[in-house]
Design a protein that fits this description.
Domain ABC transmembrane type-1 (chain B): 96-302
Helix content of chain A: over 70%
Protein name (chain B): ABC transporter permease subunit
CATH topology of the largest domain in chain B: MetI-like fold
Oligomer: heterodimer
Distance between the termini of chain B: 5 Å
Number of helices of chain A: 13
Helix content of chain B: over 70%
Strand order of the largest sheet of chain B: 1-2
CATH class of the largest domain in chain B: Mainly Alpha
Order of helices and strands of chain B: HHHHEEHHHHHHHHH
Shape of chain A: elongated
CATH superfamily of the largest domain in chain B: MetI-like
Radius of gyration of chain A: 23 Å
Order of helices and strands of chain A: HHHHHHHHHHHHH
Number of strands of chain A: 0
Pfam families (chain B): BPD_transp_1 (PF00528), BPD_transp_1_N (PF19300)
Transmembrane segments (chain B): 100-123, 135-157, 177-199, 241-263, 283-305
Largest sheet of chain A: none
Keywords (chain B): Cell membrane, Membrane, Transmembrane, Transmembrane helix, Transport
């Protein structure tokens, strides 16, 4: 820790006593990738959260109301395959995708993080069992696993969240495990053990804060993949079900008319692209920000 | 011994594949409904349903059915499709070939292109061309495959240019490569998904290698730059990149599903989506097992290459 105090903060702030590397957010913002990532992500998040409120006032139609003939060019962006306002459905279509992606990522982080830390901390047979189970889940591609679950349980919201979350868990567990193994022999962990602090408390209070860096990178990356996976399933017609307004489903519904009325497809494609690029840039920037601190330490 | 290490890795792969088969088989047990009734329809007599149940071994306990199913996999008997009312093997036979053609083409394009772009980027480190490559690969790596595919369809098949077919046009039964133009966009989509990862890994590894002492030594000795890169740097960078290449090629086995659906390509992925829609479990199981097998074999190959290429592992194993 002594070297830590020596690293001068670029802003000249006094060195902190906390063991957290100072200003990860500032380091992310300092990179052009981080700035672009934050802005792109924020734009789509705002759109997905406040879009549903604006849908009806802005277009005059709810996402489920018929506005005109199918694939007509009335209104700002025309109508979709059933004659509903594309703009209204677009504004309403990001909310569930974002919600499910965040929930799936959170589930994966909790399950994977807990398993990874437990495996590294317990070692022995528990470690072996957890990591071998990981290998088995990793041997099935995520999409195929999801399709298998959907075949059996049907395309429901909770099925999507659970199956995407659980298929992320092994990858997150690997990261959590190797990060934990790096800190497990530090003196502060030994000290806590000598004071006979309970194990779950050591994991939660000592280990978790010290592997937050790699875990947050992983969270950003997994969020990107969650969005991609859930949007893909909706696009395949096996995610959100009609008449829900959803970007992935809208692409599926309207792609037959791509050359006649491209907006029903292109708006959604654009939104998904901006969102995934944004979160990926953000994850990359976080990775660099946390890697920089380890180099300096 | 290196052979022992490889044998151990091989045994682990077989065990994992067996465990995967248990998971895939367990899916049938959770499924509500009666496959025999689904095949024969609502008007079927109880006798015929009982007969079909016996033929499909549905009257046996689950453990027996698992081993019958597993044994069938080895002899090419994947069971009966409930929606097509035909053996799964017949249904998937030619589609497997079509999918493999698509995956092989994508691999043939993306691996050399990814490696070349990565080397280019590493050699121009810090310059504008390098940061352009970094941005583009990062953006492409983030995009879901259907977003890239629709982008390509918009550019080359519908709105901007109309030079390539947007969907597969081959009639059923005809090999897809008889109309080569219909393969361009699906292949390009897959290649654009896979290549960025390879390029990024190649760039990172190459930069690390270029900073090493022996490269500096070679340069100081006056070895021509071209020779430094291709004889001294590249062989050392290939090892770690081979792993990423393998992971990406294994990914193709799953990624091909969405791309086939998008381009209505008559492959295994398309069959899988249809089967999920019809809840045709035998087909879903068969495709899952084939994909998992491809996935495991490719990963195994990568590990073996890794073991062979890593001098540290070689000496540690000895």
């Amino acid at each position: 820790m002594s070297t830590h105090i020596l690293t001068s903060d670029p802003t000249g702030a006094p060195p902190r006593t906390s063991s957290k590397p100072p200003g990860v957010l500032r380091r992310v913002w300092a990179q052009s990738e981080g700035r672009v990532g934050i802005v792109l992500t924020a734009v789509v998040v705002v759109l997905a959260v406040f879009g549903p409120l604006l849908a009806a006032p802005l277009t005059g139609y709810t996402p489920y109301q018929f506005a005109d003939r199918p694939f007509a060019h009335s209104g700002v962006f025309g109508t979709d395959n059933l004659g509903r306002s594309v703009l209204a459905r677009f504004l309403d279509g990001g909310r569930l995708l974002l919600l499910y992606s965040v929930l799936a990522t959170a589930l994966g982080m909790v399950v994977g993080g807990a398993l990874g830390m437990l495996a590294a901390y317990a070692r022995g047979w528990l470690d072996s069992v957890i990591m071998r189970l990981n290998d088995i889940v990793l041997a099935i591609p995520q999409l195929v696993f999801a399709l298998l679950a959907i075949t059996v349980l049907g395309p429901k919201g909770w099925v999507l969240v659970v199956v995407i979350g659980l298929t992320h868990a092994p990858r997150i567990a690997r990261v959590a495990r190797s990060a934990t193994l790096r800190v497990i022999n530090e003196d502060y962990i030994r000290a806590a053990e000598m004071y006979s602090v309970p194990r779950w408390r050591i994991i939660g209070r000592e280990i978790l804060p010290n592997i937050a860096g790699p875990l947050s990178v992983e969270a950003g990356l997994r969020l990107t993949y969650s969005i991609g996976a859930i949007a893909s399933l909706s696009f395949l017609g096996l995610g959100m079900q009609p008449p829900t307004a959803d970007w992935g489903l809208m692409i599926n519904e309207n792609r037959i008319a791509l050359s006649v009325q491209p907006w029903g497809v292109l708006l959604s494609v654009f939104a998904i692209a901006v969102l995934t690029i944004g979160t990926n840039l953000l994850a990359d920037a976080i990775a660099r920000a946390t890697a920089q601190t380890t180099v300096e330490e | 011994m290196i052979a022992k290490l490889i044998a151990k890795r091989l045994a682990v792969s077989v065990l994992i594949l067996l465990a995967v088969s248990v998971i895939v088989f367990a899916a049938t047990l959770l499924l509500p409904g009666d496959p025999a009734r689904a095949i024969l329809g609502q008007q079927a007599t109880p006798e015929r349903i009982a007969a079909l149940n016996e033929q499909m071994h549905l009257d046996q306990p689950p453990v027996v059915r698992y081993f019958l199913w597993l044994g069938g996999l080895f002899t090419g008997d994947f069971g009966l499709s409930t929606s097509a009312n035909a053996p799964v093997a017949v249904l998937l036979g030619e589609r497997l070939g079509n999918s493999l053609v698509l995956m092989a083409l994508a691999a043939l394009i993306s691996v050399p292109v990814g490696i070349a772009v990565g080397i280019f980027s590493a050699l121009h480190r810090g310059r504008r061309s390098d940061s352009a490559v970094t941005w583009v690969t990062l953006a492409l790596a983030a995009l879901p495959e259907f977003v890239i595919g629709i982008g390509l369809i918009t550019l080359f098949a519908t709105s901007v240019l109309k030079i390539l077919p947007a969907v597969t046009m081959s009639p059923p039964g005809q090999p897809v490569w008889l109309i080569p133009s219909q393969l361009v966009l699906p292949t390009l989509t897959l290649a654009l998904v896979v290549a960025p990862y390879i390029a990024r890994m190649m760039r990172a590894t190459m930069i690390e290698v270029l900073d090493s002492g022996y490269i500096e030594m070679a340069r100081l000795k006056g070895v021509p730059e071209r020779r430094v890169i291709f004889r001294h740097a590249l062989p050392h960078a290939i090892g770690p990149v081979a792993q990423v290449v393998a992971i990406q090629l294994a990914w193709l086995a799953g990624g091909v599903v969405v791309v086939e659906f998008l381009f209505r390509f008559p492959g295994m992925g398309q069959a899988l989506i249809d089967a999920v829609n019809y809840r045709d479990v035998a087909v879903v199981q068969a495709v899952s097992m084939i994909v998992a097998a491809v996935y495991i074999v490719v990963n195994l190959a990568a590990d073996i290459i890794g073991i062979m290429a890593d001098p540290k592992l070689r000496s540690a194993a000895a």
